[in-house]
Amino acid sequence: MSSLKEEIHYFLDRLRGRQSARRSSEFYALRDVTFSVPVGSVCGIIGRNGSGKTTLLKVLTSITEPDEGEARLRGRVGSLLEVGAGFHPELDGIENIYLNGAILGMSRSEITSKLDSIIEFADVGAVMETPVKRYSSGMYVRLAFAIAAYLEPDILLVDEVLAVGDADFQRKSLAKMKDAAGEGRTVLFVSHNMAMVRQLCDIAIFLEEGCVKQIGPSSAVIDRYLLASTPQSVQVQRTETDAVWGELRVVEPSNETVCPHLKFGGDYDFVLRLGAKQPFKRGVAQVRILDQEGVLISSLESLAEGVDQFDISEVVEVVFSIRSLGLLPGTYLAGYSLYAWGEEEARLSAEACLSFEVIPATVNDAYWPYLREHGIVRLAHSANLRYPLLSPQLSDPAGLASRPEGLPPVE
Amino acid sequence: MTGSLKRVTIVRRRSGWFDLDLRRAWGHRDLLFLFALRDIKVRHKQTLLGPGWLVLQPLVWTAVFTATVSGVAGVSTANQPAPLFYLSGLIAWSYFSQVIHATSQVFIENEHIFSKVYFPRIIVPLSSLISNAVALLIQFLVVLAFLIAFQWLGKADGLSWRIVAFPMVVLHLAAFSLAIGLLLGASTAKYRDLAFMTPFLIQVSMFVTPVLYPFSAIPEQFRGLASFANPLTAIVEESRWCLLGESMLTPGQLLASLFTTSVALGCGALLYQRVERTVMDTI
User: Fold this and answer.
1) Is the pLDDT assigned to residue B111 strictly greater than 80?
2) Beta bridge pairs of residue A92
3) pLDDT of B62 over the 90 cut
4) How far apart are CA B129 and CA B100, in angstroms?
5) pLDDT tens-digit series, residues B75-107
6) How many CB pairs under 8 A join A and B?
7) For residue B15, what pLDDT is reported?
8) How far is A157 from chain B (nearest CA, A)?
9) Residue B46 burial (C-beta neighbours within 10 Å; 0-12, 13-18, 19+)
10) Phi, psi of A71 (to 5 degrees)
């Protein structure tokens, strides 16, 4: 958006042969992006904010024209950058179904034939004759999504729209997207929700600064993205404030070598090295282990494990020793915090300063290794078999033999 | 579905400097009518008089003009009863002003839709032509009622065969309104400053068009120039010719007006489709 004033300045500058500042503010939101998506696959588009994901969708949907290059889309294209685009608050449910359907590219007769299914899917009750401005936000979104769900294009371009609605509705819309793929439709899906992308997508595209960083099977691309978004800090990635600094690394206890790949069931030390530029009193340290979606799995606590508040005069290392690592294979993130005793706010904190991979291994010389499908952590346990002799208690599953006193015995 | 997979959409920078993609717009014709229907339905929702406003507005203006311009200032109404004279001009002018008003804001007011869904953007201005044509039709019926009433009173010639030409007048009017609307809409999207100019322009158009005074009051040697520079001049006169019978408009002046209308429409469409390609990046 330029104002007339700017434009006149720009024009005058050009007349004087001066290089205008305007050109330098222009940039390519997407550059050299080449990929193809097989028919019938669900493709996730991931990347940080500003990496060009939404611009890519806007180019594919013709909302904005590319300066160079071209895209070929085979079949009818439907886009869902927003649910309920063009809904008018004053119009009733039916009128808005027609309007929004037509905006999305359906013909009137097509909408008429799908009208009953849409109303049923939306499940908003007997309010179809009421202006949508009187709908609750949940009803509004359900109606809007129902229209989109029956768009039935060959290619569906979806932006983060599934993040709306309650959990139940999200499940329903996810199922609908999966159905779409099952019916041979191709879906391109922009999301920040890695769990959703992993669940829904066969392939994924990782965009960074307008370029394709990686394209391939979704789980591999997601791992790469998560790795890229957390600096491999094992050696020297230092977090510091004016007063303190910290470094976290994972080492093998025997030889202190840093290891990016940890074996399930192995022994490792999380070493948090803390330094003070001015003497630091009564420190409490915490290391947090998160899964790839950022969900906290466990925190390692100095205080709870019996390390008293410590002072840092120069450098101190807090060693959290893990014996028989219980994290199941997968990629994890770790971060840490340093508190001064009694304070709520951390003096030094790194959200996720290092990521590490846990690789499968067996425990107790078992034949089967633990894998990610078994959960996130293995609780310390053992398994044994025993062959008990049948006792009266065990042959009495209903517990009748141990009836409370006072009740007549049952024959 | 395998059949539809043969259709390939190619997204690329449009090569020509003029590419309105009317074929794709035709594919969205249902949307065109649904937008028009929405505008008609929504315009008078939750108002007391509802569509009565469509009738009331020109009637009030007519009463005011009859009392002041004709009554006080004594401006000629070309030997016609003053109410008929003003009404027949006003309905054309108010169509023009309504369309301009709606279309000049098209990219700004529809940003939330345009930034999320693609359909040929020309659909929206076209739909406002249709929805306002419905308003025009209602006002036209009011004029007819007045016409018949004055005929009954013996103060006017009344209806004539010329009335069948009125749809042609509406076409000319719609074409010119669209032309100016597209020019303003495209420019306003790029330079918001122009948004302040639109209401001003609408007011000016009332005075430079023979709505308040007869076409015949323009000196004869300037009538051609007036029709050329402001096609609305001829359009209002066409409307009076259809409804009231008499007109000083010559075929040459009509052609001059049609010529300017076509050129403006071409320029408007050109500018509009240039702007629609990338405006969503900057708005």
Assistant:
1) yes
2) A131
3) yes
4) 10
5) 888 888 899 999 999 999 999 999 999 999 999
6) 119
7) 63
8) 11
9) exposed
10) -125, 140
Residues from chain A that touch B30, judged by Cβ atoms under 8 A, are 102, 107-108
- Name the fold adopted by A27-229: Rossmann fold (3.40.50)
Q: What is the structure's pLDDT at A234?
A: 46
CATH superfamily of A239-359: abc- transporter (atp binding component) like domain (2.70.50.60)
Rounded to a whole number, what is the distance in angstroms from the first to the last CA of chain A? 90
Give the Cα separation of A148 and A142 in Å (integer). 10
**Which backbone phi and psi does B168 adopt, to 5 degrees?**
-65, -40
Instruction: Give the ipTM.
Output: 0.85
Residue with tokens 């018949």: B148
Residue type, A47: G
Per the CB < 8 Å rule, is B42 touching A90? Answer: yes
Q: Are strands A296-301 and A280-291 parallel, antiparallel or unpaired?
A: antiparallel
**Domain boundaries, given as residue ranges, for chain B:** 4-282
Q: Which residues of B touch A88 (CB under 8 A)?
A: 38, 42
Q: At what angle do helices A167-182 and A137-149 cross, to 10 degrees?
A: 0
Residue A171 distance to chain B (closest CA, Å): 24
Residue A159 has a pLDDT of 83
Give CA angle at A102 (A101, A108), nearest 5°.
95
B118-148 per-residue burial string, b: 16 or more CB within 10 A, e: under 16: bbbbbbbbbbbbbbbbbbbeebbebbeebbe
Substitution target from A8, A64, A88, A188 for chain B, most B beta carbons within 10 A:
A64
* Spatial separation of the C-alpha atoms in residues A229 and A239, rounded to whole Å: 16
Q: Inform me whether the pLDDT recorded for A269 exceeds 60.
A: yes
